[in-house]
UniProtKB/TrEMBL annotation:
Stated name of the protein: Peptide/nickel transport system permease protein
Keyword match Cell membrane: yes
Keyword Transport (UniProt): yes
GO cellular component terms, A-Z: plasma membrane
Organism name: Kaistia hirudinis
Domain ABC transmembrane type-1: 96-325
Membrane-spanning segments: 104-124, 136-163, 198-218, 261-282, 302-325
CDD domains reported for this sequence: TM_PBP2 (cd06261)
Length: 335
């Protein structure tokens, strides 16, 4: 990708975010329900309700509300949460790192597990084990992340209580974190007690999110490896006496990564959206869990801020994946 194409993608990203903001802004105001009614006491007078609506700008025309909101966004002012009475940007900044740690842990697990299964499937092709692996992988593809979450809660949370059921850190630990990135900070401080506890709380939500991703990666990478294994350069390397494992890992894998990486980026964006339900099931204090509370409380500023952050993450991830795929293209590497 040239510098011009990157600039064009960024310009389109701004327009896309503007469109997302407009759609969400309008939809939240045309659906039934009044956010003021959710937060005011039953004994409030009409004057109290009118004053509160004026405080949040809900008494203005819809177009004026949108342009005022857009003006504030340009100054990085996402507004004030109606239900929590705090700045939206501050709330998102506190919760987003937890979601990022969870999704990147699930991404690493999905890539490793899916890659191992794909390579094993190619090495075991035309054997009974290949059919078994394909059947199991198909089952993993068919089960969504929230079903895995519920199954894990029952299996290793209730029947065999191996891992913590909820939260992000054991309340009994008295560690004072300076950043919301608990895992990274614990590793940087070599506090292995906190590292182990944070990882223990990450295991079940990571598996719930990562298992479907691993199944997608395994199927896609296996097909790409199968196509690469019949290419002339692989046949030539086989004639030279190279082992089958070395053929797969050294010759075929680097050419099969491209299409798999692109699909992984798309699935990763879907996985970030999937954190909403998974975080709720495990009471994980991330941005997805907060999004559900915001919807229940009709917290318009908070919902708008969360949707914009999700949209920005999707766009940034897609651009990053395109850049990486372009750099890993064999024609670019050997050009």
């Amino acid at each position: 990708m040239t510098l011009t194409s990157v600039f064009n993608r960024l310009a389109m990203a701004v327009l896309t975010l503007l469109g997302v903001g407009l759609v969400v802004f309008v939809l939240l105001r045309v659906v039934p329900g009044d956010p003021v009614a959710m937060m005011i006491s039953p004994s409030a007078t009409p004057a109290d309700i009118a004053a509160l609506r004026a405080h949040y700008g809900l008494d203005l025309p819809l177009a004026e509300q949108f342009f005022l909101w857009l003006r504030d966004l340009l100054h990085l002012d996402f507004g004030t949460s109606i239900s929590l009475r705090r700045g939206v940007l501050q709330l998102i900044g506190e919760r987003l790192p937890a979601t990022l740690e969870l999704t990147f842990a699930a991404l690493v697990f999905g890539i490793l597990a899916g890659g191992i299964v794909a390579v094993a499937g190619v090495l075991l092709r035309r054997t009974p084990l290949e059919a078994v692996m394909d059947f199991v992988n198909g089952l993993f593809l068919a089960v969504p992340d929230f079903v895995w979450a519920l199954a894990l809660v029952l299996l290793v949370g209730v029947l065999w209580p191996i891992f913590p059921l909820s939260g992000r850190l054991d309340p009994a630990l008295s560690t004072d974190f300076y950043t919301p990135f608990y895992l990274l900070e614990s590793l940087a401080r070599f506090n292995w007690t906190d590292v182990g506890d944070v990882l223990a709380h990450l295991v079940m939500p990571t598996l719930a999110l990562g298992l479907p991703l691993a199944a997608v990666i395994a199927r896609t990478l296996k097909e790409a490896l199968g196509e690469a294994m019949v290419q002339d350069y692989v046949l030539l390397a086989r004639l030279k006496g190279m082992s089958e494992t070395r053929l797969v890992l050294q010759e075929a894998l680097r050419n099969a990564v491209g299409p798999t990486l692109t699909l992984t980026g798309v699935q990763f964006t879907f996985m970030i959206g999937g954190t909403v339900i998974v975080e709720r099931i495990f009471a994980y204090p991330g941005i997805g869990n907060m999004a559900i509370d915001a919807v229940i409380n009709r917290d318009l500023p908070l919902i708008q801020g969360i949707v914009l952050v999700f949209g920005a993450l999707f766009i940034v991830i897609n651009i990053a994946v395109d850049l990486i795929a372009d750099r890993l293209n064999p024609r670019q590497l050997h050009g």
